[in-house]
Amino acid sequence: MSLLRVGVLISGRGSNLQAILDAIARGELAAGVAVVGSNRADAAGLERARRAGVPTVVADRAEFPMRAERQARLLEALDAHDVELLVLAGFDEILGPALLGRFPGRVLNIHPSLLPAFGGGMHAARDALAYGVKVSGCTVHFVTADVDQGPIVLQAAVPVEEADDELALAARILEQEHRLLPHAVQLFAEGRLALEGRRVRILDAAALPAALG
Ligand code: GRF
Predict the structure, then answer these.
(1) Whose CA is nearest to atom 2 of ligand 1?
(2) Which atom of ligand 1 sits closest to the CA of residue 18?
(3) Atom of ligand 1 nearest to the CA of 88
(4) CA-proximal residue: ligand 1, atom 12 (nearest)
(5) In the chain, at which end, N or C, are there fewer CB atoms within 10 A of the end residue's CB?
(6) Domain 111-213, what architecture?
(7) Where are the domains of the chain?
């Protein structure tokens, strides 16, 4: 069976992209990153992709000021590389209807909070601290038109410690993100994510037909 072709969109550092690349290199994730796209030419994660020999495409805000144009350029590249699953790994813009419509039920996002708490913003760890929660964490979810409200695939809890500032909490959450995101991609690749309403059931690998398992 051929490997699932994953496209990853980033805007910055790309540590979650790296976690996916590392999981593939370790043989823990049976998928291939077919292309990495960015809406920022200076995203450090692009270098991670190049180092791994993965093609990159940039639709920079300066060159394409309109979101629809940027995303059309990215979509063109995703199609050219036959992407089957799209992963948003620190991609800082909302997906428009063209991109979303092209990958129905096939876009995953990683968010640094236990959704539905602290969704929608770019500073989830700061917001969690300011609110005073004792537990935060991260969520991998399917992307829908409602930002950060798509069906939840996996979550990991991270306790807030007395000494935490935003940086410390975000760093401990990030460690869990790096574990969770490749795991979610692997479950998708194995055909083990089944949607029931807005609930994502994780099917038992043993119960799958041989062709899928
Ligand atoms: C992560 O915290 C992710 O949850 C959020 O953006 C950040 C991206 O980090 N969506 P990186 O670029 O993967 O290092």
Answers:
(1) 112
(2) 13
(3) 10
(4) 14
(5) N
(6) 3-Layer(aba) Sandwich (3.40)
(7) 1-104, 111-213
Q: Quick check: do 1-104 and 111-213 share a fold? A: yes
Ligand 1, pocket residues at CB < 6 Å: 10, 12-16, 45, 89-90, 110-112, 174, 177
- The domain made up of 1-104 has a fold known as Rossmann fold (3.40.50)
Residues 6+ apart with CB under 8 A from 185: 4, 6, 20, 23, 29, 31, 85, 87, 108
The span from the CA of 98 to the CA of 111, in Å, is 22
Q: Which tens digit of pLDDT belongs to each residue from 82-112? A: 999 999 999 999 999 999 999 999 999 999 9
DSSP-assigned letter for residue 205: G
Residue 209 CA, ligand 1 centroid: distance in Å = 35
Token pair for 109:
């996002």
pTM: 0.96
